[in-house]
Write a structure and sequence with these properties.
The complex is a heterodimer of chains A (256) and B (251). Chain A contains 9 helices and no strands. With 256 residues, chain A is mainly α. The radius of gyration of chain A is 21 Å and the shape is elongated. In chain B, α5 runs parallel beside α6. The two termini of chain B are 21 Å apart. Classes of the chains: A mainly alpha (256), B alpha/beta (251).
């Protein structure tokens, strides 16, 4: 029994220590971000990597999500003779929930895992130490630009996700299932309010922060082996995804 | 210039350095030898504060760096360059961009001056015309040369070499040693090298120090080192044989 309590205590101490290190890591990245020089080129490069290069997978996911949402929504709404509300159902689901969450999960899978692997390989091959020896702070050169890029890139991807998803819903609802085009777009227009869009933006910024923070941290403190790098990448993706879903619940309950 | 006083370090609970006292002579090539896992690279990393000692002091000139951070640490590091075991070139940059990196990032240098200095260093290490290649396209020896060019480009006072010939064939290892000696003679920096290459290091080093059981057990000129009567040191260096002294820089 004492053994179990001891192990539980050790586990809790390790976790609390890890959380503290993660917080210090984030604060350090923001502190270095505020110091000159502003690495504009690095930030643009990362926006290209996180944002532009994730566009295809986000558009693909958004299109099919909107389409399946329209399909499911149509059969539910038809029971009550409310097919005309399909547009609002698709748009609100997309803007308030599915857009930020699914886009963030796709970015985690595509860009987040790559971020962890890239930083982890740099750690293992001593490239991060090389930056230190050149008196270039890795937090400023490597981490801060990724953080900024995710804070800009993820909300833009979420916006694309929302628009493509609503169009995907229209494709199925209007063109395949015969809902009136006017009714679909009118219900989108009348149902979506500024606070929905605002909530979506807030979520996407928060998720961008979670992805870059967790994935950079896991890469930066990778253990010095191929196995360690594999574990770090898996942990980064799993932890980011879990935090996105938990964060989504907390933000939704605060915004409602 | 560099002085370690009573440096102790544990890694994963295991003592690696157990009170290292060492003074590195200015402008000389000092080689640290020792068995595998004896902590040579750990010792080297303490000199540039990539690692922090659990106890003891590390002095660079008149600055004690073991508890230093931020700008004061960066000011000390500007005096250093380091050639890592695997060269630690940035994968995503070409050889030219790797060598230009410290000039652009630290000195904020731009334009033709960057090109001139990079080409000059690439030529000195025998990599002229290879600037467009990426690290993945280079052989082990070429990567070390590119790493050396990057280390030299800022014209540092001190260069640390972490096993610069690991993984190279004997001919390539000799050419890297020759290059280090040539550059050391030409630029006069203080060189500290960690190496396994016995007996070759006796032919190129001014001073040799041996790390055993977490302590420096002997530091002497290359010639004196080979004449030591300590049976354990003799056993260690005799595995690789000895090298004739005429090739030595000593004297």
């Amino acid at each position: 029994m004492t053994n179990v309590i001891e192990r539980l205590g050790a586990w809790a101490v390790t976790r609390v220590g890890e959380m503290g290190r993660m917080l210090l890591f984030l604060l350090s990245a923001f502190a270095w971000l505020a110091r000159p020089p502003l690495r504009f080129h690095q930030i643009m490069k990362q926006i290209h990597f996180i944002g532009y290069r994730s566009t295809f997978v986000v558009v693909l996911t958004a299109g099919f999500t909107g389409m399946v949402l329209a399909l499911q929504g149509y059969y539910s709404l038809r029971k009550f003779g409310s097919e005309g509300l399909l547009g609002s159902a698709v748009a609100l689901s997309m803007i308030r929930e599915l857009g930020p969450v699914l886009a963030a999960l796709m970015v985690t899978a595509r860009a987040g895992s790559a971020m962890t692997a890239e930083i982890g390989i740099m750690r293992i091959t001593e490239q991060i130490d090389a930056l230190d020896t050149m008196a270039i702070n890795p937090m400023q050169y490597l981490i801060a630009p990724k953080l900024v890029a995710a804070l800009i890139g993820v909300p833009l991807l979420v916006a694309i996700f929302d628009v493509v998803g609503i169009y995907g819903g229209s494709l199925v609802g209007v063109d395949l299932l015969g809902v009136s085009e006017g009714a679909y777009w009118n219900s989108v227009q009348s149902a979506v309010e500024w606070k929905d869009v605002y909530g979506g933006i807030l979520k996407s910024v928060s998720f961008g922060l979670i992805i870059s923070w967790v994935c950079c941290y896991k890469g930066f403190y990778t253990r010095q082996s191929a196995e360690g790098l594999g574990s770090a990448t898996t942990e980064a993706v799993v932890l980011s995804s879990v935090l996105i879903l938990v964060g989504d619940y907390i933000l939704t309950s605060l915004l409602l | 210039m560099i002085k370690l006083v009573g440096v102790e370090k544990k890694l994963g609970g295991q003592p690696v350095l157990q009170g290292v006292d060492l003074s590195i002579p200015v402008g000389k090539l000092t080689t640290i030898i020792g068995g595998s896992g004896s902590g040579k690279s750990v010792l080297l990393k303490h000199m540039i504060r990539l690692m922090q000692p659990d106890r003891g002091e590390v002095w660079v000139g008149d600055v004690e760096i073991s508890r230093l951070s931020g700008t004061p640490l960066n000011d000390v590091r500007k005096r250093f360059a380091m050639l890592f075991q695997g060269a630690a070139l940035f994968d995503s940059l070409s050889v030219f961009e790797n060598v230009a990196f410290p000039l652009r990032e630290k000195l904020r240098m731009k334009g033709p001056e960057v090109g001139r200095r990079v080409e000059e260093k690439l030529q000195e290490v025998g990599l002229e015309g290879m600037g467009h290649k990426f690290p993945a396209e280079l052989s082990g020896g070429m990567r070390k040369r590119a790493g050396l060019a990057r280390a030299l480009v800022m014209e540092p006072e001190i260069i640390l070499f972490d096993e610069p010939t690991t993984g190279l064939d004997p001919l390539m290892a000799k050419s890297i040693h020759d290059l280090i000696v040539k550059m050391h003679r030409r630029f006069g920096f203080t060189a500290i090298m960690v190496s396994h290459e016995i007996p070759e290091i006796f032919g190129i080093s001014d001073w040799v120090a041996m790390l055993r059981k977490g302590k420096i057990v002997l530091m002497a000129t290359a010639a004196e080192f080979q004449r030591t009567t300590d049976p354990e040191i003799q056993e260690f260096i005799s595995v690789g044989g000895t090298v004739a002294l005429p090739g030595s820089l000593v004297g």
